[in-house]
Amino acid sequence: MLMRLKQPKRVLELGTFMGYSAVAVADGMPKGGVIYTCEKDPKAARLSRELFEEHAYSPSTTDREVKERKDVAIEVVEGDGMAGLALLARRNLRFDAVFLDADKVNYVNYYNFILDNDMLTDEGYILADNVLFHGLILDSDQRRRKTTAAASSPFSSTSSVFLKGNDNKDGNSDYDNWGFELFQKFADHVDIFNKHVRSDP
């Protein structure tokens, strides 16, 4: 929806995984657009390239080719997010939209690098996934103040409501599959990011 409304010509995605979100973004972009998507897992990068080829989103190689395209191109940049950002910054690329969906611990670093290196166009914007993180960010401040959290039940009523609503096809919640403590660590990083953005002048 956002892509169709804003019609960005160049998009950066941090965190490709299987390529689903990149395809969704591409579907809403204008013809001739290009997406650069960064993925550190070689297997995920390979599988996402196969998906992009299946959907006829072949990678671009030069800006001239991008301008002449009638479709949307997706280029996978292999490596961790910071290395991908540095590579794209050296190419003096600027983006109409950026989608953060990589490791949560680096959200603040990605955000700062993008702004510090003038990687957004004047009308550009940053989208960040998981900013509510199953409601667990509501507990982040309180949990960080507690030093004996592990000795007590980790669930608040808010957290359990959100987690119960995120069951997978096997009937297990993401919490059961990944573990509450790991989820809470992710949420704590996202909470720090949210506060960083809010306080950034």
From TrEMBL:
The keyword Transferase applies. The keyword Repressor does not apply. Pfam families: Methyltransf_3. Keywords: Catecholamine metabolism, Methyltransferase, S-adenosyl-L-methionine, Transferase. Its EC number is 2.1.1.6. Belongs to the class I-like SAM-binding methyltransferase superfamily. Cation-dependent O-methyltransferase family. It comes from Linnemannia gamsii. This is catechol O-methyltransferase.
